[in-house]
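hiii, so i know i said id send this last week but things got crazy w the move. better late than never?? heres the sequnce for the chain we talked about at the cafe, plus the structure i predicted for it. fair warning i was half asleep when i ran it
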Amino acid sequence: MTEEKREAKKENELGTAPVGRLLVRMALPCITAQVINALYNIVDRIYIGRLPDGGTSALAGLGVAFPIIMIISAFAALIGQGGAPLCSIRMGEQREDEAERILGGCFSTLITLSVVLTVFFFATKSSLLRAFGASESIFPYADRYLSIYLCGTIFVQISLGMNAFITSQGFASVSMKTVLIGAVLNILLDPLFIFVFGMGVQGAALATVLSQMVSAVWVLCFLFGKKTRLHIRKENLMPRMKLLLPVLALGLSPFIMQTTESLVQITFTSGMQKYGSDDYVSAVSVIMSCSQVLLMPMTGLTQGAQPIISYNFGARNYDRVRACFKKLLFSIFIYCAATWLVIELFPGAIIRIFSSDASLLEVGAHGLRIFCFGNLIMFLQMSCQQTFVALGQAKISMFLALLRKVILLIPLALLLPVLATQFGLFGLSGTDALFLAEPVADVCASLTTGTVFFFKFRKLMGGEAEKTAARS
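okay and structure toks below
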């Protein structure tokens, strides 16, 4: 089969293949990639938590450094997840030249961002880590890890940001391999550098950087190669503001989701230091790692659905858009219900994966059950918000991203512990009140998102259908 026929078949499948089977085929590699991607940080924590000297403090140090790591990843999402849906929509509209201009502009923007971020965080990391809750015993671990990790910022931007453009073309299995290659390498290098070479947290950071470098090389080889449908071309590398502004507008939603995740981590780690102790800082680091892992399969499902929804929205196949969304919503609901049940029944077993420290186990198991209680309803938040992104609805998706973390969670995380400690709210301790902020925000945001989506989606599909009928 010629390359042209393969490309035509790939495009045709997005618009004609049975939606259920297509979603499974697209989503499975994305889910696998997301779960494997979570291993970058999870594996580091598992090994570091078992360091013979200072394992608990080292674990807390990674938790304090994690917000900066999340911010770096958020900039990759700003460009990658902002540009990739637009590329899918343009392909559905048969405007591949413009899709390639978006791809090229996003690539050069990611390179520029990597330089700026590296310089900025090297200059400010010490003051930031202390502001984020690093005590004297925690700071050295956080500083050593972050100093090495920042050297690989350019690899993070390329591997995460540009991989989204591979998925957007329908090459879900290739994008999965991007993450698989890096994660497997990270898992192999971590014990070698941490224990055999005795590098501790620095070894964990070096293993991560080298793994991301290999993933970045894989992505570039594909996008500069012959199999890709959209190519990075020299004439498209200069960013055009006319094309870049819609990318930034659409990418703000995933960007806000990730940056606010770092703000949440900062709020929780500093709050646990204030109302609890280093053990609580370590526990919240583990709990948030677990929460991130739980979100990964949901993110993979939405990433698998995105090219289908975006392409068919651009091609005005609105029945297929509706069908894909319904299957996405149902799939995420089943996943949320299953994981919620496991967490509520076996929280101690989950915490034990990271550490066998008795104090950390007690605090972590109790906190995990409270923190993740609202996960049962998160299927509404994830499926509806990410469908708005796939449809190119930048303003709505940005508001919904702000709602859960900025408008609800962070204020609740600051307010509830004060109400508990000063006014005896429900007899809660300051740390329990802090844990409780997460499920309260999850429930409120999910119900709001579901309501907004119900009305807006129907209006959007009906309005676009009328425009199509008028043109014909």
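btw DSSP finds 16 helices and no strands in the chain. thought thatd interest u
miss u guys!!
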